[in-house]
Amino acid sequence: VAVVSYCVQSHRYNIVENFGCSGSPWMDVYAILGLHGSPVLLGAISFVYGAIAIYNFIAQRRRFQVILQQNSSLNTSRFVRLIGVAGVNIVISLLFAIRETVLTAHSVYPTVSWDYIHYDFDLVFTYDSSFLLGDPQAWVELNLSRWLPCVASFIYFAFFGMHEDMLSYYTYVWARLSQALLRTKERIFGQPL
């Protein structure tokens, strides 16, 4: 993807006020296939495997209970979390990848030469945020590209960071930190708290 990104990059980057840097691909057929094809392909593969996992879990629930009882490292809540992540991954990855591809495919540029695309390559375009007022689609795209990784991080943390094993570990770490801080205060002030 990095090689394809460089091949279809028309100039260094764009700077948008209040948003930061953004890419500058020349959106021809190769850019759409190279940049948007891999997320759609990976999302489709994830969709197939996630759907198979969810279907097998529902269809063979009793068998899973026996397997889970035999395997001490995997319990029901962990397995349900994995199935939940598969379901969320199906919705998020594939739908947003297809959405990006469809929106990008509406503005396909003609395929031209390497020299034409990379002419004046060191150019950096700057935009103030006022151009977003006239183009709500660009505003949505910039915000989605900025906030989707954050939302995905919170979703995955909710699945894997908030179960009983991790909560007990957080309690343990908090107790250790509290003890260390209290000892430090005792050494500094010379009296127990």
UniProtKB/TrEMBL annotation:
GO terms classed as biological process: pheromone-dependent signal transduction involved in conjugation with cellular fusion
Transmembrane intervals: 40-58, 79-98, 144-162
GO molecular function: mating-type factor pheromone receptor activity
Protein origin, superkingdom: Eukaryota
InterPro entries: GPCR_STE3
GO cellular component: plasma membrane
This protein's UniProt keywords: G-protein coupled receptor, Membrane, Pheromone response, Receptor, Transducer, Transmembrane, Transmembrane helix
Main location, first listed in the record: membrane
Compartments (UniProt record): Membrane
Membrane topology, from the record: Multi-pass membrane protein
Family per record: Belongs to the G-protein coupled receptor 4 family.
This protein's name: Pheromone receptor
Organism: Phaffia rhodozyma
Source taxonomy: Eukaryota, Fungi, Dikarya, Basidiomycota, Agaricomycotina
